[in-house]
TrEMBL record:
Role this protein plays: Negatively regulates T-cell-mediated immune response by inhibiting T-cell activation, proliferation, cytokine production and development of cytotoxicity. When expressed on the cell surface of tumor macrophages, plays an important role, together with regulatory T-cells (Treg), in the suppression of tumor-associated antigen-specific T-cell immunity. Involved in promoting epithelial cell transformation.
A single GO molecular function term of this UniProt record: signaling receptor binding
Annotated Ig-like domain residues: 53-136, 157-245
Name this protein carries in UniProt: V-set domain containing T cell activation inhibitor 1
Keywords of this entry: Adaptive immunity, Cell membrane, Disulfide bond, Glycoprotein, Immunity, Immunoglobulin domain, Lipoprotein, Membrane, Repeat, Signal, Transmembrane, Transmembrane helix
One Gene Ontology biological process: adaptive immune response
Gene Ontology cellular-component terms listed: external side of plasma membrane
Xref: CDD domains: IgV_B7-H4
Protein's organism: Callithrix jacchus (White-tufted-ear marmoset)
Length: 260
């Protein structure tokens, strides 16, 4: 009832300012549409590697557009006639999709408006490796970027003490690698030491006949030391660590005694 009316004047000022902003925006949009088509937009891809049998992401971003219905995303692969994936007018358009990719692809539909054209690829196959193109059309123009996709298998190694061995032996195991990796051991105490003479690595083909289980043993490990087992091939690198403490080896001896 007794409220002051001091806001009245600022409010009308505010509405004039917002009309000016809207007009300026409309003019900018008209100019923007006028030069569209001649312009190229920035498209950026990011290299990643696919782990066969798992789901992968082919990463691609572009300058966002305010209208989803104006955005067209096409994923193509070198040597493949059909499309890998197409998204336009706010939804998937898969009539020209190559059968190799049927049922295996998706874009993150809710992320397209912020300029994310990344493709999710289900159940990655070895043959999915190759050169992909992420091609984008928006009301601002068009653009594309290529992506080299590598495929293989990689997994984290687990390092444990080998209770069955007669000397202090560490055992590093990783279930799935392809192509065949190299295994290098390192120790925090003897940095730069070469453990190739005191270790032994073997590879065992898994039942699908592609990936292999990696087992590496390190003999004569010392107490109060941290060891790393590093597995690497041309698509991935993974390291497992183990800290060998006095208490840890005590547990090891207690375990042996317990077996008697
Ligand atoms: C795109 O969106 C997906 C799903 O949210 C996300 O996992 C991915 O990291 C995004 N990619 C980029 C490049 O932002
Ligand atoms: C130790 O030997 C047992 C029985 O032979 C076997 O089941 C187990 O896998 C072995 N452990 C390691 C780390 O080799
Ligand atoms: C370690 O020594 C072996 C031979 O004993 C050699 O083939 C290998 O290249 C050496 N590794 C490094 C990292 O020096
Ligand atoms: C481990 O140490 C023992 C005793 O020092 C030695 O006889 C054996 O050769 C060593 N093993 C390896 C693989 O170097
Ligand atoms: C390495 O392991 C293989 C298979 O387990 C075995 O045949 C070979 O004798 C081992 N080599 C050494 C130097 O321990
Ligand atoms: C793997 O190879 C073996 C021997 O060559 C064969 O008997 C088996 O059927 C193969 N498995 C698969 C899944 O191809
Ligand atoms: C390991 O470290 C502990 C504590 O730092 C020390 O008491 C012990 O003597 C060390 N053991 C060896 C074998 O160096």
């Amino acid at each position: 009832s007794n409220l002051p009316k001091v806001n009245e004047n600022p409010r009308s000022h505010a509405s004039i300012i917002s009309i000016i902003i809207i007009l300026a925006g409309a003019i900018a949009l008209i100019i923007g549409f006028g030069i569209s088509g001649r312009h190229s937009i920035t498209v950026t891809t990011l290299t990643s590697a696919g782990n066969i049998g798992e789901d992968g992401i082919l990463s691609c971003t572009f300058e966002p557009d305010i209208k989803l219905s104006d955005i067209v995303i096409q994923w193509l692969k070198e040597g493949v006639i059909g499309l890998v994936h197409e998204f336009k007018e706010g939804k998937d358009e898969l009539s020209e999709q190559d059968e190799t990719f049927r049922g295996r692809t998706a874009v993150f539909a809710d992320q397209v408006i912020v300029g994310n054209a990344s493709l999710r690829l289900k159940n990655v196959r070895l043959t999915d490796a190759g050169t992909y193109k992420c091609y984008i059309i928006t009301s601002k123009g068009k653009g594309n970027a290529n992506l080299e996709y590598k495929t293989g298998a990689f997994s984290m190694p687990q390092v444990n003490v080998d209770y069955n061995a007669s000397s202090e032996t560490l055992r590093c195991e990783a279930p799935r690698w392809f192509p065949q990796p190299t295994v290098v051991w390192a120790s925090q105490v003897d940095q730069g030491a070469n453990f190739s003479e005191v270790s032994n690595t073997s590879f065992e083909l898994n039942s699908e006949n592609v990936t292999m289980k990696v087992v590496s043993v390190l003999y004569n490990a010392t107490i109060n030391n941290t060891y790393s087992c590093m597995i690497e091939n041309d698509i991935a690198k993974a390291t497992g660590d183990i800290k060998v403490t006095g208490a840890f080896l005590h547990a090891f001896y207690m375990d042996l005694l317990g077996k008697e």
